Amino acid sequence: MFVYDFPLSSKARTYLKFEAIFNRVQESANLNSNSDTFSLLRGLIDFIDLVDGSGALKIDIGKDLDRITQKLRIWHSYPDADEKLVDELLEQINQSHRALNTFTRQRTVLQNDPIIESIKPRFLTPSGINCFDTPLFTFWANLDREEKMETATKWLKELDCIRIPITCILNQWRLCSDYQSRVAVNGFMQETSEPCELIEIKYPRHVRGYPVVSGFQSNINVRFLPYTKGAQVGDITFELAYVRGGIIWASKTCCHQAPTTK
Fold first, then answer.
1. pTM of the model
2. What is the pLDDT of residue 94?
C-alpha cells in the first residue's frame, strides 16, 4: 500500500517536514556508502534551516504535548481504559518534554561544526562538493567508517531534542485516527469534515496514479492523477484517515471504551 500524508495546517506541515528529515538521516546513519554520507549531511543541513525558520517551534510542540497529556489523563480515570497502554503513552510524553527542554535555537554542535559549515553553502552550487572546494569534507569522508561514525553519532544526538517530541506527537495523533473507505469517482473526491491537522491516504500499489490534495482544515479535494500522461484513472477505492491533532478520538487501539469528548 502507498501511504500519503497531506498537512492541513502550517504546524502539521512543519512536523511532517521534520519527520521526513528524521527518516532520511535514520536510513543513512550507518554511512555504508558515499550516498549515505551525502544524504546524512543534507538531512542535518535541512534540520538546521528548518529550525531557524520555525520561530514558535518549541512553543507549538509543548502545547501539543500538554493537550495529549490532558486527554490521556481523562482516559486513565475511565473504568474500561487500558491503563497500561495509557501509562506507556504518558511516559512517552514525559520523555518528550525532557528532550524538548534541552532545545535551544543555537544548536552549537551543529552550527559550529567545521565540516557542516564548510559543506552547507556548497549544496547550492552545481557539483559544489569536490576535493578542491571542500577539502575538509573530502578528508573526513575518506576516513575509516568507525571514525566517521563517531562524528555522525554526535551530530545525530543533537536532533533528539526535536526528533523525540515530534515523533511522539505524530505517533499518538495517528494512533487514534481510524481509516475509512472512500471512492474517488473518476479519480476525484471532495468532502467536508471537522477541522483537523492532516489527512492520510492509503491506496493499493496496483493503482497507476498518485493523489494530489488541496484543502484547509475541514475542506479537502483529492484528485488522483495518472502516472502515465493521458491515461484513464477511473474509480479508485482508497482509505482516508483524518488526523485531528489536539482532539484525540477514542478508539479500540487507543483505549478500549474511553469516552469521546470534543
1. 0.89
2. 97
Indicate the pairing of strand 188-192 with strand 198-203.
unpaired
- Tell me: the pLDDT tens digits for 103-145? 986 666 788 899 999 999 998 888 889 999 999 999 999 999 9
Are 6 and 210 in contact by the 8 Å Cβ rule? The answer is: no
All residues at 6 or more sequence positions from 29 whose CB lies less than 8 Å from its CB, including other chains:
36, 40, 152, 156
In this structure, which amino acid lies at residue 166? I
Q: How far apart are CA 203 and CA 221, in angstroms?
A: 16
**Which H or E run contains 1?**
none
Q: How far is CA 230 from the centre of its chain?
A: 33
All cell numbers assigned to 204: 493499493
- Contacts with 157 (C-beta within 8 Å, 6 or more apart), sequence order: 109
Alpha carbon 62 to its chain's center? 16
Phi, psi of 160 (to 5 degrees): -60, -30
Write out pLDDT tens, residues 223-236. Answer: 999 999 989 989 99
